[in-house]
Design goal:
With about 200 residues, the protein is an alpha+beta fold. It folds into two domains: about 110 residues; about 60 residues, no CATH class. About 20% of the residues lie in helices and about 30% in strands. The mean pLDDT is about 90.
Amino acid sequence: MGDYFERVVDIEATAEEAGPLAARVLDRLVAEGILTREPDREGMYSLYADEGFAAGPEWARALQTEPGWGPGPVAVITGRHHFVGGQGEDDAEYAVCPRCAARTTFIDYPNSFEPDERTWAPFRSAVEAWEAGGTGEATCPACATPSPVTDWQWGDPYALGTVCFEFWGWPPLSDAFVADLTARLGHRTVRHMGKF
């Protein structure tokens, strides 16, 4: 069982600004009728939240085309998390060193569907340290320079962030809506689509 999701992850907000920033953006979405404050969890399979907010009367304004079905909840997630695209993502998973620009590939889709543990283990440890509140430095296999995991450029199906809006069961969001949401967050974002 599962459902489709689309998420927008702020990859630059600090842990300290995450809560107030998410609250301000949520207030705007509620004021515009995109969302309500009514709790909803029907059809939500988030790894990061137990419930979200129900769609508002103007929810279709966020869509790419006319809706073919009604939307599910929207989870507003704060705190340090790693986000991975779900089924439907088929790009390689990798990180690019901020010092030398070398690319380290962890999973080479479609040739492999499991991470290369020798390559991934040091990065996994660094991400776990970052999620626990530390810097979480990963050492580049090419230049041997350690850098915070938040300085690395991650491939599309992977993101580190402190604010995330996760849309469950919605028809595809419009590029204009995602751009507006990104502008409201005031930072670079990563967009994931997939199925869990």
